[in-house]
């Protein structure tokens, strides 16, 4: 028996089995997972489109559908429930766009909603905790850079606002993790009738991981950077190749825009948020190096690049590229 998870996914799938029976349940779960994955990713893309433009949103959708084979292939697995990785981030998007966030209780509101969303996620499984929390904070990073960092308020006040803005959801996420762990231990106590045994069972997966403890962080990062992203004819492109190409385009575009307009302030929030989102997948490769090298886990963990880093990277690349093209065309037209 696998004791290291609370098991909300098992409860959900049991309900589906009860409704559809054994014959149709696998198809029903597959359809449900695909639908939820599509919905979660689409919500993030719509948010990116609102922060950029329609063509950028269309480009990211095309990237996911036609140029993300690993996301399509491995994202449908029942165990990892990819759509739950995005739930806390979607809750952040909801909070920042709600009328309640304009009230005096907005920090309490953001902390509570984040707590609920993260608790829901952690009740499925504990994998990718750091990825989920960093992805969750990305909309707040963008919001802060857009609304606060370039305002005329004093530096001390801007820093204080930033601490409150980012601190509330961060605390909510951390409390959710602690509460979910307590729930798991209580659940194990009810099974074993011993607190000592409950704590021992809760750490079962960690003790199993010691077998691979000689693997370094750099080896893990290198593995996932050098994994093939796409094959076009005889050309094989790795994730590192994709990231480097997009990064170069971003820097070239920012340089052109700065040369033409003498400012890049408009593009700083999304660019910095994209850079910050890179920390999400990398964090798990560093904090859970052993987990990334599990024979069966490693196949699926490649999808971490999309949560939400590659979505942001492609959006930023296309947004800047289209703006450079428009800028150059307007200058030539003049």
Mind explaining what this structure looks like?
By secondary structure, this protein is mainly α. The protein contains 16 helices and 2 strands. Strands 1-2 form a two-stranded antiparallel ribbon. The longest helix is centred in the first third of the chain and has 44 residues, at 8-51. The radius of gyration is 22 Å and the shape is globular.
Q: Which descriptors apply to this entry?
A:
mainly alpha, globular, 334 residues, 16 helices, two-stranded antiparallel sheet, 3% strand, 2 strands
Low-confidence stretches: none
Judging from the principal axes of the Cα atoms, what is the shape? Answer: globular
Distance between the termini: 71 Å
The gyration radius over C-alpha positions equals 22 Å
Largest sheet data: 2 strands, antiparallel
What's the SSE pattern? Answer: HHHHHHHHHHEEHHHHHH
Please count the helical segments. Answer: 16
Structural class: mainly alpha
**Main sheet: which strands, in order across?**
1-2
Give the amount of beta strand, in percent.
under 5%
Arithmetic mean of pLDDT: 88
Percentage of residues in helical conformation: over 70%
Beta strand count: 2
